[in-house]
Amino acid sequence: MKRIFLVFIMLLFAACAHGGSQGAVAGEAGGMPEWGMAAEKAHPRLLMADADMKMLRKNIRRNRDIRLLHQSLLAHADFCVDDTLQITYTFDASGRRILDQSRYALERIFFCAYAWRMTGKDKYLAQVEEDILTICAFPDWNTKHFLDTAEMALAVALGLDWCYCGLPASVRDEAAATLELLALSKFRGQWFASQKTNWNQVCYCGLAAAAIAVYERYPELCSELLTAAVTDNKKAMEMYGPDGAYPEGYVYWSYGTGFETMLLEMLTETFGTDAGLSESPGFMHTGDFMKYLVGTSGKTFNYYDSDEETWPLYAMWWFAARLSRPDLLLSEIALLREGKYLEEGDGKRFAVFAACMASKFALPRKIIPATGAALWSGDGLNPVVLIRTGWDGSPDGRYLAFKGGKARNNHGHMDSGSFVFDAFGLRWACDLGTQEYAPMENSITARGGNLWNMSQGSLRWDVFRFSNFAHNTLTVNSQKHYAKGDARIVEIIDTDKAKGGIIDMTPVFPGQLDSASRKIMLLDSDSLLVSDYVAALSDAPADIEWRMVTDATATVTENGILLEQGGYSMLLSAASNDPAIRPAYRIWPAVGPGEWDDPNPGKSIVGYSLTLPAGASCTVTVSLRPL
Predict the structure, then answer these.
(1) Which residue segment(s) compose the domain that 550 sits in?
(2) 294-308 residue pLDDT tens
(3) Nearest residue to 160 (alpha-carbon basis) of 126, 225, 210, 100
(4) Which of 39, 50, 84, 532 keeps 20 to 30 A from 395, CA to CA?
(5) Binning pLDDT at 50, 70 and 90, where does residue 20 land?
């Protein structure tokens, strides 16, 4: 009996030494975790250990939303088993990617591996085995576009790790050898290692999963890879600093942060620490950023390559668990109850991760909203101000969101100074968002260009939706914005009477204006006000256009531009502080001239034009108020 007690004490001491605190595992001076711990752990190692499954089963029994999530996952696993569509080595329309196949592989394996672990049914295990062998028979995983490789590696790693005890030894050997050959051995010298973009997050998540899953077979290579992953991922985490605003916008937050949180959870699950990555400035506040990125219309502030529609944000389950903030799951639970949680295209491959995180904490039966302040602001690569006065769905709520930044960021548009505005539950000032990449890539390549070239002369900026002509900002002399021009938010306004801020627009207009600034405010929680100060160069006049994309029906009247939609009316009017400089109201079609431009049905562009004499300056104030 004494011997058993001593063994217990020794094991407890070892557990505390290795997993009891992040500092102990990571080292006193920011050192790396003990990577060899991976080889000591039984499978499954990734995201959800067998012990976590007990908590998940308990949560499924006592919480209807977790039960609904679980049932939805099993139903989709059945779909994956029955689906006649096969995973094939097929490039998309661009001829550059097999990413669609990688994502479908991850979806099928993740869902079926989960279903097998939770039910023990052979059909799910058989599907995982079949898909792993299919993927491992591919000639390569397209390392030229490493996102494809990373998602393929994550799929095989999860299938191998989660179904390890059920897979034949020959399949385990094949999976491990292919992970080494087609992924792990390819990581050195890859360009994404130095990037502050979603590529860093996605690629290192997939590679780290592979390294943890097969560590005992390739310890030196996997140790090198995991060290590089933690070291290089610190660069990507700088994107969230200092406040949590993600520069690539709503859609790519979902993508990049989804993989980031999986990476952090894999490290924590295996080594008891994420090596301090989650402590990066702003990161633990980025859930609130995303909450404020949705307006009272239910549409997102869709700057850069994003759409207006909301969709599931599976990474929110990680933040809810880590922060004990179930209020971050209100939108997720709403979508789940509406039966929409697995409807969002290939993004649903992350849905199993929500269940993994639901195994880490007890979700209350009733979630109390935490609305917070009306104004949220974030500095960083793409500074934003987000103002929301209502959270209860009332038509009295207003939403104003605007941004600074520059076009020459990953997925950037020429939208410095742009804004969106909601009133009466409707969106009045819109962002057109993005469009499908492959057709644009093919058309621009045929013209000798490159869609992903961010330089000033790139044909990318001839795409209407990417240019300043299609955003709610200023255009001078019919020229494009300066792609490197970084517009900073220099002042935040947060009073009872007005909420907003001031953007220094001067860097966006070198050689076009002497200086420019934009003040954007929500007044008395009712009307929008945009006040632009512009100063012409001493030796050249400036033709200025103020543009705003809208869904409303627009009519020029004696007093301004009448906007009507959904039974509501608003008036857009402009006034100059110089009587000699008079804005002329304009309505432009929301149509791009290029062969690569998508149509924008139901949209128009409203605003004004004026000519500013050489050496002159003025302030023009636009108000958008309800009638």
Answers:
(1) 375-626
(2) 999 999 999 999 999
(3) 210
(4) 532
(5) very low
